[in-house]
Amino acid sequence: MADQPNILVVLSDQHAPMYSGPYGHPIVQTPNMDRLAREGAVFENAYCNSPICVPSRMTLMSGLHLHHSGIWDNGVPLPSDTVTWAHYARAAGYDAVLAGKMHFRGLDQLHGFREQLAYDINAQNLPKIPNWAAPPPVRETPWREIRAEAGSSKEIVADDAVAEAALQYLRDPAIKAQPWALVAGFVAPHPPFVVPQRYMDMYPPDEMDLPDVPAGHMADLHPAYQRILQWRGLVEGGISEANIRRARSVYYGLVTYLDDKIGQLITALEETGQYDNTIIIYLSDHGEMLGEHGLWYKCNFYEQSVRIPLIIAGPGMPQNQRIPQVASTVDVTATLLDLLNADVFSPLDGESLLPLLRGEADGWKDEAISEFYADGSTRPWAMLRQGRYKYVYSHNDPLELYDLEDDPGEFRNLAADPAQQPVLERMTNSLLSRWNPDEIDRRIQQSQRERTLIYDDLFRYLLEPTS
User: Fold this and answer.
1) pLDDT class of 454 with cuts at 50, 70, 90
2) Which of 14, 39, 51, 255 has the most other CB atoms within 10 Å of its CB?
3) Which residue is catalytic, options 103, 222, 286, 293?
4) Is 454 helix (H, G, I), strand (E, B) or coil?
5) What are the chain's domains?
6) Model confidence, pTM
7) What is the pLDDT of residue 1?
8) Which residues are within 8 A (CB) of 434 and not within 5 positions of it... i.e. 6 or more apart?
9) Is the pLDDT of residue 467 over 50?
């Protein structure tokens, strides 16, 4: 038991990897992420399995793709009889605890964790239930302003409490009686874009870089993205350059604020003599568009939205290693179970990353599947990344195919290129052989109708004080 490593999972919210030091950003300061990158491995092409909070996080907990779990959107609770990696951790002799955000829905706020050490500000907010039977949602007035300011917020207060609870846990001598697995779930750098003044001062707005949105690009976006634009109320030129610079300034400040929290956790591990026996995994649930392609927030399959940071450091891990193979969140779940040496008997959609970390790349699947059925969507929508290619299928829409080596900005859709038809056909067959859009559409619309009937009563019960 003493030889089992501790596991610290730092899970942020809405951090696109390209906005950090380990992924090459020239402005954003992340010294603690940089340290983990030097002392561990950076996965250069890691993806979330859904670019929105609850489905992505429940994928991490269960190791299941959305079309297997049925966690379609932010309003679907993970069933309490779903076996999670936290259940396996405790069965393997670990003390599995959660501090902060995991965005669990419903009455079960643990799903295998022994205790929630700090409150989750998203635990009981009312979910929005999409309605695919209705016309696509359209915002009537253009979106003209992004809130971006220095100061505090309930999210900052919550993250400070998460850090304090996690630090108190790490400094408790009693935890050394058994190996532990701690998740520190932070809200940053998720909106609102509000950050303490000292962090915003690090990034003067007039010195910020701007998104790459060629003239007329928004009008030429794929129909699925046009629906996102209409839902958000985004129009070309609708948000001023000054506001964009200010929003990016605050977002970069939030990333550095988050990085400071990681540094506090590392320091506590060092001070308590636990650093050398703790594997640290840093990842986020999804990314942030930050104005690229004229889009903000997440909810799509562009790189800024669907790609995530993934850094793994600790005993037995390679140092200063960069891993180019494609991976995704379900693989992180499988890796956690591998590290726990768990006796796994429930189905998993991912594969352990430990062979890649040992340099054993032969036979690696080199692919990621991501699905989106939530805000702004009207039909089954999925992404398949295989090697250098990204393929996107939106049901009854034109196909998308991008060569990310030649076109990292995703500006050239190759789906109609005759030279790329073998790749397009291969990836279409690869996705549709295991992902049935007609069946998924039926299941989702049934789920939406059922939840519309019951959720008013359910959440009134959850939110109203009891006598």
Assistant:
1) confident
2) 51
3) 103
4) helix
5) 6-367 (3.40.720.10)
6) 0.95
7) 34
8) none
9) no
